[in-house]
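User: Can you recover a sequence for this backbone? Please restate the input before giving your answer.

Assistant: Of course. Working from this structure:
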């Protein structure tokens, strides 16, 4: 047993650990003591499909490397496969970001100008990621959900490495969503309407989708600042995005503007999370 695997097993048996809200993927906990105190330890659905999980583990490591090489800072993050009587399950240990340094908390507490400044810093890193991976041969994605970012003294941190959006085809990723979703409704949907699980990932695999996801999250957090956020986003799209990336973002902003003008709020077409995770 490796040192990290032993530490993970100890963390999972820590009766004093704090369990976070279960997501569609995995259940996070914070150990109260031991070598992984100060980390988030998240377990995912296990099974006997060793080949699937071993491939996933390799691609997870590759994805973390890809994120960092493309300019996104990722805290210390490690995936291990734990075997219990032939049932194998992935577990991720990641250095925790303090709650008050999560991007959602910072944007809620900041004034309008400071909140937009935070968005601009994160959006700049997201766009740089897509520029740097443009020539990679693998299929690579980035789900820029606003609650998957934190901040430290050096800038934005990206936290979402599961599922690893690298080297999987569209069909394969749809199957992985179904395989690892804790929610039985999602797994059932995948059996009845597998195309829905394939479709939901499309936003993760385009620069415009990543930028739009970030903007949508900011508008959900600060609906009273819709006009200011949309104005910033228009300027960002014009000055910082290549033309092929710009048009879909501008179309999404136009929908938000129309919805706000009609008094229906900005979430008529985009409510809720478009990627299920913790």
């Amino acid at each position: 047993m490796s040192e990290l695997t032993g530490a993970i097993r100890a963390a999972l048996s820590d009766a004093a650990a704090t369990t976070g809200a279960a997501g569609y993927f995995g259940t996070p906990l914070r150990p109260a003591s031991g070598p992984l105190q100060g980390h988030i330890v998240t377990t995912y659905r296990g099974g006997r499909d060793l080949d699937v999980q071993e491939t996933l583990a390799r691609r997870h490591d590759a994805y973390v490397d890809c994120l960092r090489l493309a300019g996104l800072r990722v805290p210390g993050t490690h995936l291990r496969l734990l075997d219990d009587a032939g049932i194998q399950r992935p577990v991720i240990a990641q250095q925790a970001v303090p709650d008050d340094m999560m991007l959602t908390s910072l944007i809620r507490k900041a004034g309008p100008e400071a909140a937009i400044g935070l968005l601009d810093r994160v959006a700049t890193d997201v766009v740089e990621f897509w520029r740097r991976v443009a020539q990679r041969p693998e299929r690579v994605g980035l789900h820029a959900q606003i609650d998957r970012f934190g901040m430290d003294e050096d800038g934005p941190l990206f936290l979402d490495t599961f599922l690893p959006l690298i080297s999987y085809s569209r069909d394969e990723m749809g199957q992985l969503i179904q395989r690892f979703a804790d929610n039985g409704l999602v797994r059932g949907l995948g059996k009845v309407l597998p195309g829905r699980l394939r479709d939901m990932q499309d936003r993760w695999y385009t620069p415009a989708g990543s930028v739009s996801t970030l903007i949508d999250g900011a508008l959900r957090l600060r609906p009273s600042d819709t006009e200011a956020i949309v104005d910033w986003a228009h300027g960002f799209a014009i000055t910082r995005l290549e033309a092929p990336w710009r048009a879909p973002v501008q179309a999404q902003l136009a929908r938000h503007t129309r919805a706000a003008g009609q008094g229906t709020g900005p979430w008529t077409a985009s409510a809720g999370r478009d990627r299920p995770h913790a």
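That completes the design. Residues 266-278 have pLDDT under 50 and may be disordered.
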